[in-house]
Amino acid sequence: MFCTEDAVRIAGQRQPKVIFDFIEGASGREVAATRNQSRFDEITLQQRVMENVDRRNLSKTFLGQKYNLPFGIAPMGMCNLAWPDTDSALAQAATNYNIPICLSSAASSTIKEMRDWAGENAWFQLYVGGSMELSLELVERARTEGYKTLVLTVDVPQVSRRLRDLRNGFTMPFRLGPRLLWDFATHPRWSLTSIWHGAPSPKNFKLGKNGTHFDRNASRAGANWNFLEKLRASWTGNLVIKGVTSARDAIRIKQAGADAIYVSNHGGRQLDSAPAAIDALPKIRNAVGADYPLLFDSGVRNGEDIVKALAMGADFVMIGRPMLFAMGADGAKGLNSLIKIFAEDTSLTLAQTGLNDITAVSPDILSNNTSAVEQLQQPLLKTATS
């Protein structure tokens, strides 16, 4: 396994189709997911020569914490479907490489377990579903366990129709029919290992005091402006708002007191007509100013993509699907291999662009991306009405 594409290919052989498609699939015709990656391919970097780049630094500070690499692990639901014990393997990797890991509300491990495994590197991501009581209970659990960073996802008012899941009959819990049984039977290593470890489930929702069970298709529209105001007033740690592609929304979120904005279109899993997240990034950077913290995900598949995202305005990058494909390809060994590959590619990209420190990445290394450079160099917007 030498790249994300290798991980995808091998995972596709080892995982049941219903699981592989759940991870790789996106909304509608999956145009947005394809666009996320193709737009990265259109961004070019200016190579520089004869600079002293023998020693290169990849460490980055984000929201007051220093990490050894400029990327972390994005929040993803039900990671243990990719391969048993994926959550704990991700947490161990986050600790070993000193990178952040964000636990999803819909995770197959509990808030306490992730904090125990990953310590200060653990963040918690919140979905606000039909039960406001349960949502606030999750926040309180995160506070009790010592989480310092809370990520509120706001781009899932309703889960989109994902055609692969519908065609495969993907439900939680699984409803075993002939086709699904055959799918599992023809992938015995995944199936037997999963049986041995026990079927994964969204543990944080099952633990709700009010007995609320997880409904994957329930409305999550409770993440509105009023809720943001209440959450900001009650949560004293870092508050990050995830799923933003509108500059106008970004300005309002900043004015509401959020500590950072997470630019993302949910990996193309929500609105199939959404712009590529990388195209929204420079617009949002221009809107919020040069010093406001921005996270980014959606479409990142290698180290060059990480450098491109930083050059387009991100302060830190999060990686989602590739981590799960690496686990599906070769378990924890595959995950560690891919993280090392991402780190090495990022470092090599620095060298090729004449830089020796990741903090020196700027729009200056962008080559033919005139519109993006112009957006990043425009006078910064100061208010929502400017």
TrEMBL record:
UniProt keywords, alphabetically: Flavoprotein, FMN, Oxidoreductase
Binding site for glyoxylate: Y127, R162, H266, R269
Chain ranges of the FMN hydroxy acid dehydrogenase domain: 1-371
Residues of the active site: H266
TM segment ranges: none
Needed co-factor(s): FMN
Record flagged with keyword Transmembrane: no
Residues engaged in binding FMN: 75-77, 104, 125, 153, 242, 264, 297-301, 320-321
Highest taxon of source: Bacteria
A Pfam family: FMN_dh
Molecular-function annotations in GO: FMN binding; oxidoreductase activity
Cross-referenced PANTHER family: 2-HYDROXYACID OXIDASE 1, S -2-HYDROXY-ACID OXIDASE-RELATED
Family indicated by similarity: Belongs to the FMN-dependent alpha-hydroxy acid dehydrogenase family.
Protein name, UniProt field: Membrane protein
Organism expressing this protein natively: Kiloniella spongiae
Phylogenetic lineage: Bacteria, Pseudomonadati, Pseudomonadota, Alphaproteobacteria, Rhodospirillales
